Amino acid sequence: MATEPIDSNDSTAPTESTLQNVSFPSAGTTAYGYLAVPPAGHGPGVIVIQEWWGLTAHIKDIADRFARAGFVALAPDLYGGRVAHDSGEALRMMGELPTERGVELLSGAVDYLLARPETDGDTIGTVGFCMGGGFVLSLAAKDQRISAAVPFYGVNRDGVPDFSNLKAEILGHYGEDDDTVPPSSLKELRTAIESQSGIVPVLHLYSGAGHAFFNDGRPEAYHAASAALAWERTIAFLRDRLGASG
């Protein structure tokens, strides 16, 4: 994965040490995360999976946005309270979390979210960004309780997963100008999903958008028009698959 330069002293850099309000057992340990509940007090569940920076204010804000849209949103803290302050640290921390271990931790988060009294239904959706977008696909490929999967410019560090057991519908968002996840790489992903699962993914390309175009905390990467359209499509997709009031 290409590094993304960021000044650790810049005001846009993530500086939180932790943003957690729940804990739960997962993969033989105690995991933590941020839970946001909709105004109605209940709704379909959505797992929000962090970028390589960690559980930042940006990810917490996305969970809050999902809650306002009618979903019970859980953002698991895959780094156990640590947040990267520059791209080098983020790369190192991501490398310390093998894909298989991340999927184990996320499966525990699925257990927890489905067991919450606020969560409606017996399946959930997943949405993730960059590293988290890759985890969206890896988790959906293994856990049939995921019925809707939304990767934003997902990085598949170990190559394309085995989708033989996939049950989730997939909606993907990618930037046409993304050097980290180039549009040319999507052909392999689409072919693997269709040939192995029979599911036809919807993979959108956004003109003028690069990597991390949804992250409004990074003005050098944020592409407002693409982010707004991707959000609109994501909410409609999740409501259709999971059911949620506006």
Outline:
The chain is an alpha/beta fold and 246 residues long.
Features:
246 residues, alpha/beta, Rossmann fold, 6 helices, 33% helix, globular
If you had to describe this structure to a student in words, what would you say it looks like?
The chain is α/β, with parallel strands linked by helices and 246 residues long. It has a single domain (22-242), classed as 3-Layer(aba) Sandwich (Rossmann fold). It is built from 6 helices and 8 strands, in the order E-E-E-H-E-H-H-E-H-E-E-H-E-H. The protein has helices at residues 57-68, 87-95, 99-115, 131-142, 186-197, 224-242, and strands spanning 22-26, 29-36, 43-49, 72-76, 119-129, 146-152, 169-175, 202-206. An 8-stranded mixed β-sheet has the order 1-2-4-3-5-6-7-8, sandwiched between helices. Helix 3 (99-115) crosses helix 4. It is globular. The model is unreliable at 1-17 (pLDDT under 50). This is Carboxymethylenebutenolidase. Residues 1-22 are annotated as: Disordered. Residues 33-240 form the Dienelactone hydrolase domain. It comes from Streptomyces scopuliridis RB72.
